[in-house]
Amino acid sequence: MSRMLPRYRVYLLVLATLLLTGCQNLAPRATGDLGLVIERATGSVQIIDTGSRSAVARIDGLGDLSHASVVYSRDERYAYVFGRDGGLTKVDMLLQRIDKRIIQSGNSIGGAISQDGSLIAVSNYEPGGVKVFDAQTLDLVADIPAVGENGKRSKVVGLVDAPQKRFVFSLYDSDEIWVADMRQSDKPEITRYRDVGEQPYDALITAEGRFYIAGLFGEDGLALLDLWQPQAGVKRILGDYGRGEEKLPVYKMPHLEGWAMAGNYALVPAVGGHEVLVIERENWQLVKRIPVHSQPIFVMASPDKRSVWVNFAHPDNDTIQVIDVATLEVVDTLKPGPAVLHMEFTPRGEEVWVSVRDANRIRVYDVYTRREITSIEMESPSGIFLTNRAHRIGL
Amino acid sequence: MSRMLPRYRVYLLVLATLLLTGCQNLAPRATGDLGLVIERATGSVQIIDTGSRSAVARIDGLGDLSHASVVYSRDERYAYVFGRDGGLTKVDMLLQRIDKRIIQSGNSIGGAISQDGSLIAVSNYEPGGVKVFDAQTLDLVADIPAVGENGKRSKVVGLVDAPQKRFVFSLYDSDEIWVADMRQSDKPEITRYRDVGEQPYDALITAEGRFYIAGLFGEDGLALLDLWQPQAGVKRILGDYGRGEEKLPVYKMPHLEGWAMAGNYALVPAVGGHEVLVIERENWQLVKRIPVHSQPIFVMASPDKRSVWVNFAHPDNDTIQVIDVATLEVVDTLKPGPAVLHMEFTPRGEEVWVSVRDANRIRVYDVYTRREITSIEMESPSGIFLTNRAHRIGL
């Protein structure tokens, strides 16, 4: 018998190992209705499930997550979290753990994933440039120092992905926009556009990936690059968009990703002013100013393009206003609570998830009745990023 | 020792059972890059993986799949396959098997999933009407007999989902469009639009869920319902769209889901003619006719809206033509092989997957170089449906 014991101990061991490794994750699940919420204060993220409207798991150890953003792998399994401290963290949404984490620079400000999902690009302040990584391994594939016309390294902002495996970004300190063609991943082909305007500070790309628009901190107006005719160069649009002659005090420069494209209109936050500007996309002319509660930050269109939801800068950031796109009027004002930082619509637009940092809550609203459906406890939540972003250009 | 044997046999047994049941599916995977291909001849579907560009598994026993279509659950785990024989099959994309299957009518023609993912609607020819099922259990939730103004039951066509938990569909035999408000799932609230035009035979809803457009078999022109102003009723547009006075021979009425919405234009297949029509979305006026190879069937815009891909009716269905949206000219002609039945773009538009039925192949093309990247063997493939449809309105 004593000869037997070790033997069936082995089976016990194998069994235990199996249970501890694989089988805890036996229950198969898909990730199409999952997302991540950034918990800045604790350097953690929470996986949320918009199907059951619940928090699924907390993952710690992601470092400094102020101004953090997220992109997803094309199979919607992995989230890439870009931290302020230069950390790039690959989170496994299925196994609910960090798959890989690297510190890729001293100070970074967001990133993007290539159209085919093979490359992750990160834009850095310090040292200024873009680093490109293999999406699977996080191995460095290309390093693009942002040395501007002035010979100095510049902070990089407004990095987005564009069709044909390109990344587009702006150089804050040298007033340039660069397009990096990554079709040969290790040999980026860079096209440089100079004198695009003073201090581009952020940018967006339209949903189909055609128009790249950079906001300018140093002057009024915006820089527009039409990627369908790159040879035409960068044009200046909306000359009166910005802080204006008298340089209004701006508590927070609005995000350009927060522009709402609805039908023929773009609804954009006025810089400094208490207005949402309505712009005709055909010719980029201002057609209307909609007075709102305070300085708008995010101006986001629901997936059905019928309503646009607006949050505001400190100290008026306890409020959301809703604009009806059909009438271009404010039709509702909500008070989710202190420090409404972000809003994310469910993919087909029936709900909007709102982070209320200082209430330590995510609030879920019915987009049509605008009633609160439920709320979920979080640690100072900021950004909310759902996995369906995996399927979209420029997000 | 003899006393020990049975005991560790038990462990062996447990171990074996574990391995055979759960652990075969241990390797966790996400479904965001999966899809289904309809194999009509064999009544089977194949799960495809656009990440590894491969076929993952074949699932049999789905009945008559001619003209079959597919929608996905909001978590992208389950596919709902609508068969011609009235079969509604719920396929588990993770466990690669049929989860549930019912025969819900004698003869059906497609379906839709509600905005919130809770309801599956199927449109039936025989008996004419719409049946609504619980997306999880496939239990019948509501039965909507399509009894038209003429008192007869009508074939139902052009069923789509619309925002605010509505389904919109057309009554072929009584020239009506119905909007079913499902906010109270078991008590559908029906709004009926009459005399919309002779024999609506198919329909589409625009990506944001605002415009429902039905094609008319019995006369020229199209029926347009603006869901933002339902009280305005159904308007007739494009009076000259159709088979025309001389009633051209039509080998196959083009699909309306195959309309390409690109920027301010809709590119639509001319009925009978060898043309793609370019329509100004602002006013639904015809602005250009693009001559093409033969009678177009699907006219599909790439996700970046830069190119539109067109396939054709028998006997000229070995060809695909590509239209450049910037110039509205045909820029390429491909010959994938006999019976090109369907095209599906990867979510961010780097590739297009093409079913070539009589070559028993799916061909994968680079959307930009238009070169074939690879091809995959299939049994007479027809429709291709990727899981990212889960996140879109009207698909």
Task: Provide a concise account of the structure shown.
With 395 residues, chain A is mainly beta. Chain A has one helix at 4-21; strands spanning 34-39, 44-49, 54-59, 69-72, 78-82, 87-92, 97-103, 107-113, 119-126, 129-134, 140-145, 156-162, 166-171, 176-181, 189-193, 200-205, 211-216, 222-226, 234-237, 260-262, 265-269, 275-280, 285-291, 296-301, 307-312, 320-324, 329-334, 340-345, 351-356, 361-366, 372-377, 381-386. The first copy, chain A, has a domain at 104-237: YVTN repeat-like/Quinoprotein amine dehydrogenase (Methylamine Dehydrogenase, Chain H, 7 Propeller), CATH 2.130.10.10.
Report on the architecture of this protein.
2 copies of one chain form a homodimer. The first copy, chain A, is mainly beta. Chain A has a domain at 104-237: YVTN repeat-like/Quinoprotein amine dehydrogenase (Methylamine Dehydrogenase, Chain H), CATH 2.130.10.10. In chain A, 5% of the residues lie in helices and 47% in strands. The first copy, chain A, contains 1 helix and 32 strands. Chain A has one helix spanning 4-21, and strands at 34-39, 44-49, 54-59, 69-72, 78-82, 87-92, 97-103, 107-113, 119-126, 129-134, 140-145, 156-162, 166-171, 176-181, 189-193, 200-205, 211-216, 222-226, 234-237, 260-262, 265-269, 275-280, 285-291, 296-301, 307-312, 320-324, 329-334, 340-345, 351-356, 361-366, 372-377, 381-386. In chain A, the strands form 8 sheets. In chain A, strands 3-2-1-32 form a 4-stranded antiparallel β-sheet, with no helix packed on it. Chain A has a 4-stranded antiparallel β-sheet with strand order 4-5-6-7, with no helix packed on it. A 4-stranded antiparallel β-sheet of chain A has the order 8-9-10-11, with no helix packed on it. In chain A, a hairpin with a 5-residue loop joins strand 4 and strand 5 (78-82). The longest helix of chain A has 18 residues, at 4-21. Chain A is globular. The relative contact order of chain A is 0.11. The mean pLDDT of chain A is 91. Chains A and B meet through helix 1 of A and helix 1 of B. Chains A, B: It comes from Thiohalophilus thiocyanatoxydans. Chains A, B: This is Protein NirF. Chains A, B: Pfam families: Cytochrom_D1.
